[in-house]
Amino acid sequence: MASAQLRQIPRKEVGKHNQPDDLASWVIIDSTVYDLSRFKAMHPGGLSVLLDPEVAGQDATDAFFALHRYEVLERPPYKRLRIGLVEGEKPHLHGRIAGQLSKVPYGEPTWLSDGYYSPYYNEGHRKFHEAVRQFFDEIVYPDAIDREADGKRPSQSVIDKMTALNMHAMRMGPGKHLQGRILMNGLVKPEEFDYFHELIITQEFARSSLRGYGDGLLGGKVIGLPPVLNFGSEELKAKVVPEVLEGRKFICLAISEAHAGSDVMGLQTTAEKSEDGKDWIINGSKKWITNGTFADYFTVGCKTEDGFTVILVERGPGVETKQIKTSYSTTAGTAYITFDNVRVPVGNTLGEEGGGIFVILSNFNHERWVMCCASARSQRGIIEECLKWVTQRKVFGKPLHSQAVIRSKLAAMIARAESAQNWLENITYQMCNMSYRQQAGKLAGQIALLKSYSTGCGQDTARDAVQIFGGRGVTQTGMGRYIEHYHRTIPFDALLGGAEDVLADLGVRQALRAMPKDARL
């Protein structure tokens, strides 16, 4: 029943329905009157909670929001319990509203906050952001919740709707692959699309998604397709790229093995030429490969006679994939892959034979930058959850934020998220103004350090958030479910794309390499 159709009920009338044996047990939540008569026996928290003198027949708004998220009130079974509005009052609280900017302090990046300015974003970026947020809130978020829970791969209907907007192509960043495409219903021209547009997509995706689903919704494409785009033959690109960017086929990056992770040159999967020299024959295995369970193409790192070579393998005879269960949902399609005498045309070689290390290293900057975008935005979402919680949670008769130790944790969380976002936007601006070769020379160290810093900040924020939410922060349902999820899955950010310690060391080594010979104290 819509609010306009609900009858007006005086508060005194509500107060009369508060007895244990009353056939009509009423409560008020946000000026809305609920009749709990038929619900009392089914209440998950037991009957005694509803019979509490401060709840039965009373305004139970504070008591309700100390235990439940707003979304509970929006579920059909509970909507049916509404019988009226308190006379002369209107509901004023709300939960998640699709497409709307958050008014919670630090709930949005500065450039999206009222009264603040940014030199990086123009009006076109703002209109683009508005449309992207609406899309992710309405189309992606519901599917993310369902698929994270049931473990199935992201729905093809969502993938198709992303295709209609050329979202898959935009997630690859600026480039020739955008030419001739209508982006986001014409909101931005291909030649005007820049890294800030891609940053917007990535951050809105992180905001409206969950960690496993975030990788499952073709995260493998973001890291597996660039080697094809940048190093594949024209014939190979003409076949593969349209299929992948239109969401008809899926691709993943298959580098890591049980024997080698960051040590790319230690890979043991082999590729040998056939006797006629026309095919590669590949043998070996790959592990922890995102989207591997449902991929049609695999960008595979192999040991060859000349060193290390990257080859595009199409799913077929000899290719086997098995699901690996990790800390996040199986919707990510994390796989163990075996190659048993798999024959692949030599024309599927990406880059030079023996030159695979350059192919992979050229891919790292963008992959790590994408992860920095997602990390900074995910931390902000946790801060928003915490600020809401400390405001509505009461301890010792006062809001939780009355405790100095809680405010100290919030201060640290905010500082980490803001510093990561500002460093990220600075690097993104450099990317917009540097050639690909300049980026490789000047930004590899900066991006490596930012990723190490961002994911380290994320782990600190996850730990602080659990302390703020207490037991709810380690419970997969209810008030702290997003905190629990973030705390459980944050290690993925710290490992994927390069472990924190390895990247921090890379950043310092890059800096030392640029040290001027004449610098002295």
Strand order of the largest sheet: 1-4-3-2
Give start-end ranges of low-pLDDT stretches: none
Distance between the termini: 75 Å
Q: Rough shape? A: elongated
Structural class: alpha+beta
Please give the largest β-sheet: 4 strands, mixed
> What is the helical fraction, as a range of percent?
40-55%
Q: Please tally the helical runs, counting DSSP H or I stretches of 4 or more residues.
A: 18
Q: How much β-strand is present in the residues?
A: 5-15%
What is the CA-based Rg, rounded?
A: 26 Å
How many β-strand stretches?
A: 14
**Mean of residue pLDDT values:** 94
In short, what is this structure?
This protein is α+β, with helices and mostly antiparallel strands. The chain is built from 18 helices and 14 strands. The protein has a 4-stranded mixed β-sheet with strand order 1-4-3-2.
Features:
521 residues; alpha+beta; 4-stranded mixed β-sheet; 14 strands; 14% strand; elongated; Peroxisomal acyl-CoA-dehydrogenase; flavoprotein; flavin adenine dinucleotide binding; metal ion binding
